[in-house]
Amino acid sequence: MRPSTLAKTAGAAFTAAAAGGLATTPVVESRWYRRLKKPGFQPPRWAFPVAWNILYSDIAVVSASTIDTLDERGDTEQARAYSRALAVNLVLNAGWSWVFFNRRMLGPAAALAGVLTLSSADLARRAGQVNAPAGAALAPYPLWCAFATALSTRIWQLNR
What we know:
By secondary structure, this protein is mainly α. It contains seven helices and no strands. It has one domain: Up-down Bundle (Ferritin). The chain is elongated. One of its GO terms (biological process) is tetrapyrrole metabolic process. It comes from Mycolicibacterium poriferae.
């Protein structure tokens, strides 16, 4: 994996994390968020930054490896397609925080989480087609997004 590719994918993941954090951080302490009814299966607050830091690192490394492998094989169009899918995924990822925390639109946030889950599964599938262990390494991402979809949906249901 080329350091320049890793720098690009890590930069993209960091940008998504930072954008999402801008929407999330001020609201997590807000009266609105504290008053939301939350399901019993919601993890403790500290679990979210831990999980997301691991996942963003995983996304960056697997994506860089996948893009470089495709480029080395001469499959530059597939490398571009993966890069576009990654960009869409990271926009969806950051966008969820803005829809849920900033706009306080719980139903649309639950739907967006579902779309993010599908996008994340697609990234893992694409990476797995290039390198099976890379796809397996990225598998926790759609699993976490599926959990986040269930959590987001339940919060919406409890707070209609």
